[in-house]
Design goal:
Elements: H1 21-40, H2 45-52, H3 56-68, E1 72-75, E2 80-83, H4 85-98, H5 100-115, E3 118-125, E4 128-135, E5 150-152, H6 157-164, H7 168-177, H8 191-204, E6 207-210, E7 217-225, E8 231-240, H9 246-273
């Protein structure tokens, strides 16, 4: 006679709750790897493996899976791994749920109209700023950062606004791994100079990108705070030096700070109502 049909359900000898432990561990490992990629701003397979204490073969299998889903992607020229476009879509879904992007649209529009310059919204992504939304000025010469564009933290108005309000240990760890690339003669490439600029940013409430990313262009930014008081995003105004001259800096800065406060308070109201 044949054996008794095997019953559906969990395998014998496995404790209740342990059936999915292997899958959960694999998922946990994949998320750890994704976290390292997002914070690293471009790491090789060996660097990722070393940071997590995992075998390179294990990391490679996970990266291949993440890449197949578009969550991670590799740069063939540098052999480094980065966050992929699918992760951006996931992040965008969260931002839509939190309401920041939607709530920022009219604020960005008013900021653009009040200053006459392009207004931007961005968040921290690894060692870069990820731009989420923009209200573009109608001026012929203007800044342009379409959603999904990334820019170096140390040479960005929003980037420096976020760095300035980062916790000390987190800031030191990030700067230790971050390459302060020179884009123009004005770029702050010395850690001491950048730290001094971040201290000034904290004291006055806004950051200034003074031709540090692109010659002839300036950017003024302020942080947007979440419910925990963390700088969760930044809002900025970017334009040519010819229109954002020294005499206008203080006035534009106050307008940007007011916009950032409006969005910060909006985040608090949303959280309080949930």
């Amino acid at each position: 006679m044949g054996s008794e049909p095997r019953k559906r359900g969990r395998p014998r000898g496995r404790a209740q709750g342990d059936g999915d432990s292997g899958g959960v561990r694999a998922l946990d490992r994949a998320l750890d790897i994704l976290d390292v990629i997002a914070a690293g701003g471009g790491l090789t397979l060996s660097e990722i493996a070393a940071r997590l204490g995992l075998a390179p073969s294990t990391v490679h299998r996970v990266l291949v899976t993440l890449a197949a889903r578009g969550v991670a992607e590799s740069d063939g020229a540098t052999q480094t791994w980065h966050v992929g476009p699918t992760a951006f879509r996931h992040g965008s879904a969260f931002m839509r749920r939190s309401g920041l992007v939607e709530r920022a649209r009219p604020v960005l529009r008013r900021l653009m109209e009040a200053t006459g310059e392009t207004a931007n919204l961005g968040i921290l992504q690894g060692d870069a700023v990820l731009f989420l939304s923009q209200a573009e000025t109608h001026e012929t010469i203007r800044a342009f950062f379409p959603p999904g564009t990334r820019s170096a933290l140390h040479a960005s108005g929003i980037g420096k606004a976020l760095l300035a309000h980062m916790r000390g240990p987190d800031l030191r760890a990030l700067l230790q791994d971050m390459r302060l690339e020179r884009f123009t003669p004005m770029t702050l490439t010395a850690p001491e100079a950048l730290m001094a600029d971040l201290a000034l940013t904290r004291a006055r409430g806004f950051s200034l990108d003074n031709e540090e990313r692109s010659p002839g262009m300036r950017c003024i930014a302020a942080p947007i705070f979440d419910l925990a008081g963390e700088a969760a995003a930044g809002i900025s105004v970017s334009g040519p030096l010819s229109r954002m001259e020294d005499a206008r800096i203080a006035g534009i800065a106050q307008t940007v700070i007011s916009a950032a406060r409006e969005l910060s308070f909006g985040m608090v109201r949303r959280g309080d109502s949930d």
